[in-house]
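B., you asked whether I could sanity-check this one before it goes into the benchmark set. Here's the sequence:
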Amino acid sequence: MEKLLSITLQNRKALYTILTKTPEAMLLQIPSGYRNNIWWNIAHVVVTQQLLVYALSGLDMKVPTELVDKFKKGTVPDGTATKEEMDMIKGFLFSTIERTQEDYGNGLFKDFKEYTTSAKVTLKDIEDAMAFNLFHEGLHLGAILSLEKVLLTKP
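And here's what the prediction gave me:
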């Protein structure tokens, strides 16, 4: 489990760099042919980890419900982001994974509600959830890199 969380932290560092180095207008822009933007993908990754790991374990999530409602699966970006939201997500990129590592080490994840993802992967326990989360984050990093490429080459 340590390796999964270590790799997840590396991915979060990449997302943090993108979030802090990309102009806000570019973070919020939805290119033609896309349904979301860089900002939504980053916030969605944070929210999804909480849903997969904490909510399916019957534990309280470490992010506000408002963020979950705005960035969970099935949502679409509205083209806005407040400074408060951006600052929260910047902090949650690391604190949520560090807290997961701590909670896992303390044996908090005792129960788990089996769940089949939209990718048809059935998660049976916390280890499955953490492994799938890493896969999910990789998909969204790829989407972000694609968005960056399109936005940077746009005339």
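One thing to flag: The chain is about 65% helix and 5% strand. Otherwise nothing jumped out at me.
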